[in-house]
Amino acid sequence: MFLLSSSASGLQAQLHALQDYCNAKKLTVNAKKTQVMIMRPGGGSGNGKLAAGESFEYAGLPLEVASSTKYLGLTFSQLSKQHGFASCADVLAKAGRQAMFAMRRRAWELGACLVEQQCMLFDVFVKPVLSYGCELWGVDVLLRPDCSSVERVHRWFCRRVQGLPKQVTAAISLAELGRQPLQSFWIQQLVRFWNRLQNSAADEDRVLGHPRMAH
């Protein structure tokens, strides 16, 4: 369960409400496994920690303040004014790199050594790992002026599969394979996600009996 609030007092009020609900339903919450994470840039005191006099408790027990947490396969950490949710991509880059090495090792064992086969296997087994949840963190990564950590994994693969040295630019290694940067795929996913949100909002209006007027 996730509780969200824009203020410390609001979150503590939600914790009290949760405690009342659990007591009424005879439910138990393990306070030792319950964590609080400050998402706002700078944290409570400007350094990612609690501000003076700021604390959280449940049923009289203090709650741990975590610097990061994993939810539905994405690792969230404190937001940065410069990078936003881009830290999610940094964790995925590590997982994608491991998936890439495992894919290449297995491909060599099975004799799938052709460049075309390697690229197809990358798109099937590695690309989904690198792009997981890009609808959430993709915007922040796309706004960064430097190359993202997940795209660096893709570029490394493109150079390696062709036996090219590091001095070869990414544009050349991608062009030789006829591939596009992963950013192109992320943009497609972002647009589709936005369209689904728009459609779901329209469906909600129809369910509530407020159909949108056609122009």
Helix-strand makeup class: mainly alpha
Give the SSE string. HEEEEEEHHHHHH
Alpha plus pi helix count: 7
Low-confidence stretches: 210-215
Chain-averaged pLDDT: 82
Distance between the termini: 41 Å
Q: Give the overall shape, derived from the CA principal axes.
A: elongated
Into which percentage range does the β-strand content fall? Answer: 5-15%
Protein name: Reverse transcriptase domain-containing protein
Organism: Chlorella vulgaris (Green alga)
Task: Using brief descriptors, characterize the structure shown.
215 residues, mainly alpha, two-stranded parallel sheet, 7 helices, 6 strands, elongated, disordered C terminus, Reverse transcriptase domain-containing protein
Can you give a write-up of this model?
With 215 residues, this protein is mainly α. The chain has 7 helices and 6 strands; from the N terminus they run αββββββαααααα. A two-stranded parallel sheet has the order 1-4. A two-stranded antiparallel ribbon has the order 2-3. α4 packs across α7. The longest helix has 26 residues. The chain is elongated, with a radius of gyration of 23 Å.
Summarize the topology.
Layout: H1 8-24, E1 35-36, E2 57-58, E3 61-62, E4 64-65, E5 68-71, E6 74-77, H2 86-110, H3 115-130, H4 134-142, H5 149-162, H6 170-177, H7 182-207
Parallel strand pairs: 1-4
Antiparallel strand pairs: 2-3, 5-6
Helix pairs in contact: 2-3, 2-4, 2-5, 3-5, 4-7, 5-6
Organism: Chlorella vulgaris
Protein name: Reverse transcriptase domain-containing protein
